[in-house]
Amino acid sequence: MKVGDLVRNLEDITQGIGIVMEIDIEMWGQVHEPPGIKVLWNHPVWVDDDGGSVMYQDEVEVIS
């Protein structure tokens, strides 16, 4: 997965299509957690101040 990839949420299809804004985010300060990514969704359920949603990388599927 890389910045700019188009993705879809595997657990919530209502978010639609998203674009990866950031990768390799340390989640919760724990080394054993899977890597996080930040995604800009066309129908977000939640967002940070910059409009992106941080989630685990294994929660999305790359479609491009």
Largest sheet: 5 strands, antiparallel
Oligomer: single chain
Q: What is the strand tally?
A: 5
**What class would the helix/strand composition place it in?**
mainly beta
Q: What string, H for helix and E for strand, traces the elements in order?
A: EEEEE
Helical segment count = 0
Describe this structure in words.
The chain has 64 residues and is mainly β. The protein is 0% helix and 41% strand. It contains no helices and 5 strands. The protein has strands at 6-9, 17-25, 36-41, 53-56, 60-62. The chain has a 5-stranded antiparallel sheet with strand order 4-3-2-1-5, with no helix packed on it. Strand 1 and strand 2 form a beta hairpin. The relative contact order is 0.32.
Compact summary:
This protein has strands at 6-9, 17-25, 36-41, 53-56, 60-62. The N and C termini lie close together (10 Å). The protein has 64 residues and is mainly beta.
List keywords for this structure.
single chain, 64 residues, mainly beta, globular
Helix-strand blueprint:
Elements: E1 6-9, E2 17-25, E3 36-41, E4 53-56, E5 60-62
Antiparallel strand pairs: 1-2, 1-5, 2-3, 3-4
